[in-house]
Amino acid sequence: MQTKTSKSVNKLSAVNENSQEIDRQEKIAVLAYEKAEKRGFIGNEADTVQDWLEAEKEIDSYDVPAAKPGNFA
Asked: Domain for residue 44, yes or no?
């Protein structure tokens, strides 16, 4: 049985994960826009998708969490 405290911690953890995902999406959107801007907004839908995928990969490479001591996966 979960205690009131553990339920609160679980809720806070879910909120934090959601806000991190929103922050990630915003970063990707900004970077994808900048990529489109650099090419003069010339292109088609495939170019827009490519901008997004490249931005997503770049942002994810920056946001790799640091390893914690003793946590070897």
From this structure: yes
